[in-house]
Design a protein that fits this description.
The protein is of the alpha+beta class. The protein folds into 2 domains: 117 residues, no CATH class; 228 residues, Lysozyme (Orthogonal Bundle), CATH 1.10.530. Helices cover 43% and strands 21% of the residues. It contains 15 helices and 8 strands. Strands 1, 2, 3, 4, 7 and 8 form a 6-stranded antiparallel beta sheet that branches. The relative contact order is 0.07.
Amino acid sequence: MEFKNLGQFKRKKVIVGIGLIFLLAVLGSDAKGSMIAGFFSSRVISVIPPSPSVPPEAKPLWTILEKINEAHNLLKNISLKVGDRDINYTESRYASVNGKIITASRSFKEPEKEIALAALNIKSGEIKILTVTKRGADLIAPAGWNVEVLERPSGIRWNGRNTAYRVNSPENYVVIANVYPNEKDTRVAQKNKQGKTVYVTQRTIKYDLYAPYSPDLHTSDLVISGQNYTKNMVAKAMEELKFAGVKSKAIPKSLVTDVFASKNNFFERIPLLEQTDLTEFEIDPKNTVERAHVIIGANQDKAFNTTCNSSSACGWVQFTPRTYAAIAKSYPSTKLIKDFKAGAADHLNSMKAAILLYDTNLKDFINIKGLGVLNDPSLEEYLASSYNGAPRHAKASLKAAILGGIQDWVQALSSKKGGIKDETRGYLVKLRWLQQNEAPLAAVANS
């Protein structure tokens, strides 16, 4: 408020003072005391201490994938010794047959060889390179190191580049990569001194650089990495098939990608179905599935790339040469890699081939059940069965289920009568578990 002159200000001050004296007289002594105290006592200032600041979560100085890549660089130029004479040894194998675990002995032979291991100190981040020696079934570690080979639930111990190691001492070390030398003897033609052609055995050594699975590497980070890698690979395969305009054999004039729209999870499950051991799966399905994710997460495009079985099926989605050649010929616009070994080893290329094989087999089930099969809740089972075994067995089982009014088509026809084979039945045990546990697995991995 602004006063025009000093006299006016004084008059206002006198009026306020008189009013205050009158009010105190009316209120009495107690009220006077408290009011006076309120007006004239020193101000009490409440100081509210600041809440303690929560330090930001410390960002790790490194990730396990970064350390695996660092280990690869340290190992890429290493040289190892391989002996000339094979050493025989045996291992026990456990298999589930009719609900019972049976044991069988398997014989192996391999020359004495050096193996390079990259051991990560999980406390400091330091990586040490050490050379161990495989002598038959025995592992010999250098002085100061105690390293053992772990046995899998199926009885497998030595498993080439994916052998599971544990460092018992020094403490805090985990094997995150290894170089495993694989020897191969081939017969080659040479000219002798007389000019005649003779055949001699020539040994070549191939070094396999890999991040082997072990319980010490079984982390949520690598499980998530494996899941994401597979999802991205399927999405990219679909994208490239769409860009190439690849037409469906099952539904002519439609694109393959339109036929399988919103069904990417069919193909995300193929590497898990192909790369998990049934006996181990029956013992611990969750751990077995996560094991495959860890291997994929740790090795990315090298995961299972050179894995081949006794039927010559190779790669992370296990194609046979004959089937791969047929798919490449049927879908020329896809331009799949011509060489089988290279094509099966390439994750993107082989995933495109897997999608196309599902499309080829889908035609059979459309012939049996019509286009309504696309919405059949068992569609993935029909296609996975045909992928794993000959399609004729899946078709025979489905027809028997329809004719007999049997709800579970898998049980409609025995394998002896042409139904799906026992191996494929085990394949579907895994598939059904994956379908039922997909969401829980994803939730745990992302928690």
